[in-house]
Amino acid sequence: MPGFEIFGDEERKQVGDVLDTGVLFRYGFDQARKGHWKARTFEAELSERIGAKYCHLCSSGTAALSIALASCGVGAGDEVIVPPFTFIATIEAVLTAGAVPVFSEIDETLCLDPEAIEKVITPRTKAVLPVHMCGAMARIDEIKDFCDKKGLILIEDACQAIGATLNGKALGTFGQMGCFSFDPVKTITCGEGGAVITDDKELYTAADNFADHGHDHTGNDRGLEGHPVLGTNFRISELNAAVGLAQLRKLDFMLEKQRANKKVLKDALSHPDLKSTKIAFRKIPDEKGDSATFLSFLMPDESRARKVAADLGKAGVDSCFYWYDNNWHYVRNWDHLKKLKSSAMLPVKLLDYCPDYGKVKLPQSDGIMGRTISTLIKLSWSEEELTQRIEKMIDVIKKIG
Q: Residues 172-218: pLDDT tens digits?
């Protein structure tokens, strides 16, 4: 991770196909495009790879979330249960749908704790939106069972977990809809891109319409297409789809490489010499299904985690993240969310429904995130680079004790 580490002739060929036709738009121009349909081909291959009946490619992971919420009928005043550890886009998508994000605790999977969700259920709860963070899964089977029992919509944010599975079933396929991101730093990158998947034809049709100004995509004349719904523009271009198509065809190699590199690193940090440090690893419900984009480990307390994170940076160990202080991924640092009612460009009525996010208390999540450090797993590491990284990390962690 990320896919840009292995750009090559495959991506150049796919982009060249598009440029040769001059057709960068994903719809129409049938004769001019000379049989090249990059977005359509990407959708078909991703559906097959993931094991979903339908896929719609769009402009970003954020767009995918917005499309899924709209397609599932989540809107004005509905409450959507979300985790506090996620990229802010998850929260933005809920708010721009006119719905209210309701935060629930995470557990040591670093994802929503299924046992905590019921505590935040209200009569206005419409959906649960778990996020499969850092490449591995939530306890999504338990969350699905809970949603089924309560009659709640389940939408999966699998934007960081392409290719990951739980007991052989792809993440993103447990709920009514699943969402993926192909932004510049994801395992598969289009530069900008995303996708929604579903097994429900009606939801797929709604997504396909909504993402293109309500067009129903029937017939061969775009000007004569029907408009069964109001929509917006979340289209992906053929150029972005072309890059993503080449990347998708490398996914199995990427997963194999990430898993191999992560195993070497995790085995090294599991060495008996580090036993006294009481280092623990993120809980992963299905190790075999982990896409292995990150190795996340927990120190015994916040002070030691802060010290390790700082010293890893000083030692030149790049791409290590102390999420507790991260401005993009953890709720405690989202000052713009805490100021929502005074600064957000959102409908006033929606703001009346929203709580004061500055007063949200999540002690279980704070306790976990305060101790957690994640290191990115790169595709491009040489054996020597990986060995040097391990040596530096072990040295830093041992010194903290």
A: 999 999 999 999 999 999 999 999 999 999 999 999 999 999 999 99
3-state secondary structure of 40: helix
Q: Tokens at residue 352, please?
A: 């009346």
Residues of the chain short of pLDDT 50, as ranges, are none
Q: Which helix (H) or strand (E) holds 196?
A: strand 194-198
What domains does the chain contain, in order, with CATH numbers? 3-250 (3.40.640.10), 253-400 (3.90.1150.10)
Is there a contact between 252 and 45 (Cβ–Cβ < 8 Å)? no
**Which residues are 375's β-sheet partners?**
295, 320
From CA 162, how far away is CA 194, in angstroms rounded? Answer: 11
Tokens of 1: 């991770």
Separation of alpha carbons 255 and 299, rounded Å: 27
CA separation for the pair 173, 68 (Å, rounded): 13
Question: For 121-158, what is each residue's pLDDT tens digit?
Answer: 999 999 999 999 999 999 999 999 999 999 999 999 99
In what helix (H) or strand (E) does residue 245 lie, and over which residues does it extend? Answer: helix 238-248
Helix (H, G, I), strand (E, B) or coil at 292: coil
Residues that are catalytic: 186
Q: Is pTM, for the whole model, over 0.90? A: yes
Give the Cα separation of 217 and 332 in Å (integer). 43
Six-digit token string for 183? 């932004």
Note whether 132 and 160 are within 8 A (CB). Answer: yes
2 preceded by a cis bond (ω within 30 of 0): yes
* Amino acid symbol at 158: A
Q: What is the dihedral of CA 212, 215, 219, 223, to 10 degrees?
A: -100
Helix axes 9-21, 238-248, angle to 10 degrees: 150
